[in-house]
Amino acid sequence: MTMDKPHADALVFFGATGDLVYKEIFPALQGLVRDGRVRIPLIGVARSPWTIAQLRDRARSSLERKGIFDEEAFETLAGLLEYVSGDYGSPETYVRIREALGDAQHPVFYMAVPPSVFPVVTDALAASGCSQGARVVVEKPFGRDLASASSLNETLHKHFVEESIFRIDHFLGKEPVQNVTYTRFANPILEPIWNCDHIRSIQITMAEDFGVKDRGGFYEEAGAIRDVVQNHLLQVLAIVAMEPTGGEPDGYRTEKVRLLKAIRPLEAADVVRGQYEGYRSVKGVAPDSVVETYAALRLSIENQRWAGVPVYIRTGKELAVTATEVFVEFKRLPREAFGEDVAPASNHLRMRIGPGIDIGLGLRVKVPGEQMIGRDVELSLTSLPAEGDPPYQRLFSEAIAGNPELFARQDGVEESWRIVAPILGDVTPVYSYEPGTWGPDEARRLMGEHGPWLDPSVPVDS
Fold it and tell me: What is the CATH number of domain 10-139?
């Protein structure tokens, strides 16, 4: 639902010379220009003493590197680009930003800068008058725990009302995640069985077959739980398990927050942490590091719809494949009609989030012959590449239009931190695992009678 807000008339992106802008933002801006959705000033801001020609060259390099350079769209994009060089704490920098904004009354300020810089930038924007009528878009991490998330929120609210703060979790802009939302609510056949009476368990896996690469220093500060569980994967769970909205303004985010509020805080017994062999040799990683590159968790949703249904989430680096999917396992009948020994996971709905989009329905079918025996198969309901707008293109378009639906809300951020708070840091052992496997053996025992984990690389069709 698009909120009744004025369309932004300028976009200012701080950190214009950084990696995130190079890898994600320039491609998003070209897409918006190409599709005719952006014809407003695009003002890059950074400390580097660049010229506008250097910024345009940087944008061209970004697009060529991704193989998406569009001559006509780039010509328009280059004409919209402007550049302001200066220190983020200097009032003169914001005088130049105000000049570059011209007559713009409703700019969007996007901050691809460390959270420690947010107070400096927001205070200076307010002092210069630039924050009046503006929106601010901030990148995760939204703090590193509940206390710091609340502190960051106070910083932002000092000069911006909540309706003008857009917190980017790029996962929410992905086409496959949007597809999960649509599948969940567009098919009335699911609603009568989408509850604890019919569902045995839910599994969510986010696996990557590569390590931390050159991000050792970052990972030492974050770890898998802070990096993707607290934000991406809890958001996916909220989409899978939330109640339908009644069409009220901001109802989509309200229902996600209501679901997060129903999740019991994790305890040490609910988590298994792992670290792949070789992680400690990565530059920036401590030789005795106990930071997790793998996490498996068991969650409980304490509401009427999901009472007694365990939710299992796992994520890790250097696993067997790169894939993200949701696996909803339906209950078997108390008595098997044909007396077979049937695996519980034979009836399921699998929603692949990446790579590509894949939705499969697990059923039992009869094996040809005289006996009434069957086998498990998975019907592919859809299998498509992840088409649609790239996440940042979609999210920038929504922020410019003033639609907050695909952005994290502060109460949701705080609820996510509340859930993981008891297990942050070195509160449980870190088990070593070999690269190319599915993590430490201890994660299998976490599931108990609801196991095994369903690996995305293993076809369910037997």
Answer: 3.40.50.720
Q: Does the annotation count 170 as an active-site position?
A: no
SS3 content of the chain, % helix, strand, coil (to 5): 40, 20, 40
Please pick, among 106, 159, 170, 232, the residue that the annotation labels catalytic: 232
Q: Domain 172-450 is classified in which CATH homologous superfamily? A: Dihydrodipicolinate Reductase; domain 2 (3.30.360.10)
pLDDT at residue 462 is higher than 70: no
C-alpha distance from residue 40 to each of 53, 398, 426 (Å): 19, 15, 48
Give the span between the Cα atoms of 279 and 291, in whole angstroms: 9
What is the residue extent of each domain of the chain? 10-139, 172-450
User: What's 279's DSSP letter?
Assistant: G
The model carries a pTM of 0.90
pLDDT tens column, 233-255 = 999 999 999 999 887 888 999 99
